[in-house]
Amino acid sequence: MSTVNPPFRADHVGSLLRPAAVHDARARRAAGEIAAEELREVEDAAIADAVRRVEGLGMRSVTDGEFRRAWFHLDFLQQLGGVAVTGNIAASSDSASTVHMTPPKLSVVGAPPSCP
């Protein structure tokens, strides 16, 4: 790893842009063309490359780029009791016309488990 000591602090917060190989593998997985294990291998390779690049910049901490996440908030929210991912938001939404994709729709499907 190179040693970088700039007169300022730089942090990376959030996701790195996913490489084309990850996008392609996800599409192939969604179409049933590859197994989950094959998708994971592509993600593993992309994560290893991202870690090498971040280390090469001299950053003292690294990230996996959040390459395995589909949406930044769903990993947490879909684990909550009584919450389900029930499909996509209507195609007439702003996101459909501006970024050409519609985010998943979260729905409350029941009461969360009682807290002690």
Could you characterize the architecture of this molecule?
This protein has 116 residues and is of the alpha+beta class. The protein folds into two domains: 16-68, no CATH class; 70-111, no CATH class. It is built from four helices and two strands, in the order H-H-H-E-H-E. Strands 1-2 form a two-stranded antiparallel ribbon. The longest helix has 21 residues, at 36-56. The chain is extended and about 50 Å long. It starts with 19 loop residues before the first helix and ends in an 8-residue tail after the last strand. The mean pLDDT is 79.
Please describe the topology of this protein.
Elements: H1 20-30, H2 36-56, H3 74-77, E1 83-88, H4 94-98, E2 104-108
Antiparallel strand pairs: 1-2
Pick out the low-confidence regions. none
Distance between the termini: 48 Å
Strand order of the largest sheet: 1-2
Estimate nothing, just give the exact number of structural domains: 2
User: Major beta sheet, specifics?
Assistant: 2 strands, antiparallel
DSSP summary, beta strand count: 2
Mean pLDDT: 79
| Range of helix content | 25-40%
Strand content is 5-15%
Supply database-style keywords.
alpha+beta; 116 residues; extended; 2 domains; two-stranded antiparallel sheet
How would you sum up this structure in a few lines?
It contains four helices and two strands, in the order αααβαβ. With 116 residues, the protein is an alpha+beta fold. Helix 1 (20-30) runs antiparallel to helix 2 (36-56).
